Amino acid sequence: MLKSLREMSISKLSAGILVSIFRYFQLMGVLSLRLTHSEDGYMVSNENRLKWISAIIRLAALCGFIYSLGKVVLSNDFQIMQILQGIRLIFSIPCSFIIIAFQFFRGSEIIKLVNRFLRVFRQVRSVNRSKRSGFGGRRELLLILLKVACLGHEFSYQWFMYKRRCNWECIVEWLCNTYVVAGINIFTHIFCLVYVTIGVLCSEMNEYARHDLAAQLGNLTPPISRGKRRKARCQLENCLALYREILALNSAFQEFFEIPIAVALAQKTLVLALFGYRVIINSADNIYVLWLLMGKHLLDLLLMTLSVQGAVVQFRVIRRLNLEVYPVSDLPEFHTMLEIFYTHLNLYQFRVRIWGLCDVSNELFIIFISALVTWVVFIAQGSQQLKNV
C-alpha cells in the first residue's frame, strides 16, 4: 500500500510539473494556447490575444538580441567568438519566425494534435482498470526534473554574465537573450516531452493488455457464447485501435515538427563544436560557464534520445504479448484480426527519424559523443603542436 501511495504521489508530482512547464512555455511566448480542465480532462484551445502579445514581444526581443550580438561581434577581436555569435544569430532568426508562423498559420493544427494526444491519454486511462492518476512513474519524473534543470539553466545562465554590470540596459539585454534562447531550444524540449508521453501511453497499454485484457481473454473457454464473443471482440478491437492511434500520433508529430527539430539539432551541433574549440583554445575565459553550457546542450540531446528510446522499447513489448495463445484466437475472426494487426506493426514500425537520415537512439548519441571527443582531442593536439613550433 505504501508503495502504491508513493507511486501515486510521484505520478501526481510529474503531472503538476508538466502543467508548470506548459505555463512556462506560455510565459516565454512559445505556446499561445489556453489549457482548460473539464469533467472529461484537460483540453487546449486558441488564445488570440496571447498569440498577438507573444508575437510582438518576440519580434521586439529578437531586435534586442540582434543588437546585443552585433555589439559583441563588433567589439570582439576573437574570431571564434564572432563565429559563435554569428551562428546564434543565424539560427535565432529562423527559429523565431518559425514559432510566429506556427502560431498564426498552423495554430489550428497544433491544437488538433495536442487535443488528440490528450484524447488518446483519456481513452487509455478509461480502458485501464488500475485507475491511475497523474503521469508516469519514477523514470518519467527523473526525465522531467532533468528537463526542468535545463529550462532553469536557460533562464538564469545569462544573468551571471550580466550581473557584474547591472543596469537597465543589461537587464533588457538579459530578458531579450532569455526570450530568444527559449525559442531556439523549445523544439528540443517539446520533442523530449512528447516522447516521454508516448512512452507512458505505451506502458499503460502494455499493462492493460498483459493483465486486464489477458485475464478476460483467458477466461473465455469453449464453448463461447455469442454475447461473450462479441464483448471480447470489442475489447480486443479497442485495444488494437489504441495501439494504432499511438503509432499514428508518432507519425503525425514527426511530420509536423520535422523541419524545426532538424534546425534546432543543427544549431546545437555547431554550437557544441565551437564551444569545444573555445574551451581548448581560450581556456582562461569563462571556462566554467563554457563547460556548463556544453553540459547543458549535451543533456538536452541525452534527454531526447532517452525519451525516444523509452517509447521505442515500450512499443516493442507489444510483439511479446502473445495474444494468440488464448482460446479466442482459434476463432477465424480473432485470428484474422491479430494477423492484420501484426502485419500493420511490421509495415509501420515505431521509428523516430530526423529528415529520414538516421534513427534517434542511444547509439546515435554515443556516436555523437565520440565525434565531439575526437574533435576536442584534435583541437587540443593541434593547439599543442602550434605552441611547440
Describe this structure in words.
With 389 residues, the chain is mostly helical. The protein contains ten helices and four strands. It has helices at 2-27, 48-75, 79-105, 107-127, 138-162, 168-218, 226-281, 287-316, 332-347, 362-388; strands spanning 33-38, 41-46, 353-354, 358-359. Strands 1-2 form a two-stranded antiparallel ribbon. Strands 3-4 form a two-stranded antiparallel ribbon. A hairpin with a 2-residue loop joins strand 1 (33-38) and strand 2 (41-46). Helix 5 (138-162) packs antiparallel against helix 8. The mean pLDDT is 78.
Alpha carbon gap, first and last residue: 70 Å
Order of helices and strands: HEEHHHHHHHHEEH
Q: What does the overall shape look like?
A: elongated
**Helix and strand composition category:** mainly alpha
Q: Determine the number of helices (DSSP H or I, runs of at least 4 residues).
A: 10
In spatial order, strands of the major sheet run 1-2
Low-confidence stretches: none
Strand content: under 5%
Q: For the report, how would you describe the main beta sheet? A: 2 strands, antiparallel
Gyration radius, in Å: 25 Å
Quick description:
With 389 residues, the chain is mainly alpha-helical. The protein is built from ten helices and four strands; from the N terminus they run αββααααααααββα. The relative contact order is 0.10.
Any chance you could write out the topology, listing elements then pairs?
Blueprint: H1 2-27, E1 33-38, E2 41-46, H2 48-75, H3 79-105, H4 107-127, H5 138-162, H6 168-218, H7 226-281, H8 287-316, H9 332-347, E3 353-354, E4 358-359, H10 362-388
Antiparallel strand pairs: 1-2, 3-4
